[in-house]
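Throughout this chapter, every protein is written as a compact record of paired, labelled lines. The reader may check this reading against the record printed directly beneath this paragraph:
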Amino acid sequence: MQTIDELMTQLTGACEHLYDIAWLRAHPIAELVAMVAIPSDATKDRAWQTHHALIKMMDELNPGGRAPAMSREWRKHKLLRLRYVDGLPPQEVADALAVSRRQYYRVHDEAMRALADMLMSQRDAAPNRGQLLRTEMDRHARTLRPSQRAELQTVLDSALSLLHDRLSQRGVHVKPTLADALPPLRADDKLFRQLLLGVMDYLIERVRNTTLDLSARTVPGGVQIDLMLSPVLPHDKTAGAMFDELAALSGAQVTPMFTGDALHGFTIVQPTVEEACANTVLIVDDNDDTLELYRRYLAPRDLALHTARNSAEVFDALLDARPQIIFLDLMLPEQDGWDILQLLKNEPDARDIPVFICSVLKQKELALSLGAAGFIEKPFTQEVLITALKSANCE
């Protein structure tokens, strides 16, 4: 966690370079300062957002009529405006404020601490990006259907339309080269467009007056989209990681492409409809939160998900679609999981379907002795579910 003194040092450096846009663009304070960016500046370059946000923060120190002129609160605001917005040297600022040089530095430190406190409060109050994205993923996962498909050309045209002004501002020309007769993507079109927008905007933000080559071709496992820049970018350890959650929900793989320590683009591999095997999974559970967790973990994969809350719904689901695997809770209304497991094992058309008992009850040995293919203890992880799917040749 960054200390207040470290943040004050970064803020001082940013204020000293308030009009050096290239310096601000590369400074780590830019991302944090963007939290207090003026909403109307949302389409501006990040460096200009930082420039305006710093001035806005300085002005928020203005006490107005709450404090008399030449008070300590008034001096903090005035000192920052004179020193960094008007560009006066320290001695002239001290003279304007009628303070000694020693007092100038004391007030300066107080003003910087006030800015740092403001920024840290904004950071702490801001919603956690990971939490917000996971919430959106949970909500979106409930609407995904295995049959959804997207046409790459249509999604790309839509993304380029949204990025038109951004590309013009940065002087970036996108050169698309798509192979003929690309199969439809197995993805939600809006979700995949958001992934494509995120990757493209990451690259666009870091360059000017260049060409972004975008090519697409069919590969084993789906369609590969390559987004390549010239010139290359400095090494970024976080490149790609920021897209992991969106990519997982879309069922895609996003890989940064490096030449030595230089980043020159990304590769996205998105499964296609032709690659789908549409394995069917039956989830037997009466807890809504648990069902949502199953959907979140399994929705990105090529699986037809069916749910049942009791024994009657289980056998209705068996008639509608023969599942390749069943995840079965134990604590159910009417007939519990043990009863349903026995019914399944006594049903000729269902006895060979692997059943995984999923329960908070620690009864693995009993489950296996009664014919379960495996036992999963709640709360479970995505990795545990995927392992079960693989064991049933359903992954």
About this structure: Confidence is low (pLDDT under 50) at residues 37-44. The domain at 132-273 is CATH 3.30.565.10 (Heat Shock Protein 90).
